[in-house]
Amino acid sequence: MVDINKIKLIIFDMDGLFLDSESVYAIGWQKALDYYQIKVGDNFVSSLKGQGARDNDKAIYDLCGNMSLVKKIRQYRTDYFLDELRKGNVKLSFFALEIANYLKQRGFLIALASSSFKETVDTLLSTHNLLNFFDFKVTGSDVKSVKPSPEIYNKTLEVAGCFPSEAMAFEDSLYGIIAAEAAGIEVCHIGESNEKVKEISFASYSNLKEAYHSIFEGEK
């Protein structure tokens, strides 16, 4: 278990962790692939979770071999996602705002580290009136390599002025966990667990409320 007394900075992933957006993205990808009649295996869409836009585009290009078509598929998915966002169907994850507020009140610095481009991050945060909520924000637009590269986490530590030993992260995807761990940051997994996740995260919980009570309040 991480020593909370040494922690100054709490870093949150965005998609699937702070925002319940991954399921909407997944539906959008599937609709786009179906519309353009691209046949994929059962696990293809789920394999896109936690990756940056460049990696997802490459995965789709490997299927169809046509970058122009890849751009059309991405635009279809983006249009679907933004429509769902306007409808209010992209919500904050359970207990996300509560845990962030609790941590701010207790004097922790809080940061957002997302592989998504800055424009996407700002749009999503603005929708929930959270554009200026985080002390620090690092996106895929700020780095050359996104998760599972540790660059986003290294950059977050740099802008926050913290050592890896002074930070901990919350992540929902394996790519994110690998990135945080590679940066030397203790990482807590949120969501459905597996052996690989358990191996490289210091703890795994079903949701942020459960994690907060166990890690910060010493109760389950």
> Averaging pLDDT over every residue, what do you get?
94
Biggest sheet character: 6 strands, parallel
Overall geometry: globular
Per CATH, the architecture of the largest domain is 3-Layer(aba) Sandwich
Number of helices: 10
Low-pLDDT windows of residues: none
Radius of gyration: 17 Å
How would you explain this protein's 3D organization?
This protein has ten helices and eight strands. It has about 220 residues and is an alpha/beta fold. The protein folds into two domains: about 5-20 and about 95-215, HAD superfamily/HAD-like (Rossmann fold), CATH 3.40.50.1000; about 20-85. The mean pLDDT is about 95. It comes from Streptococcus parauberis.
Task: Summarize this entry quickly.
The chain contains 10 helices and 8 strands. The protein is an alpha/beta fold.
Break the fold down into its secondary structure elements and pairings.
Blueprint lengths: L8 E4 L6 E2 L1 H14 L8 H4 L5 H12 L2 H20 L4 E2 L3 H10 L3 E5 L4 H10 L8 E3 L12 H10 L6 E5 L2 H9 L3 E5 L4 H6 L2 E3 L2 H8 L5
Parallel strand pairs: 1-4, 1-6, 4-5, 6-7, 7-8
Antiparallel strand pairs: 2-3
Helix pairs in contact: 1-4, 3-4
Keyword list:
220 residues; alpha/beta; Rossmann fold; 2 domains; six-stranded parallel sheet; two-stranded antiparallel sheet; 10 helices; globular; PGP-like_dom2; metal-binding; metal ion binding
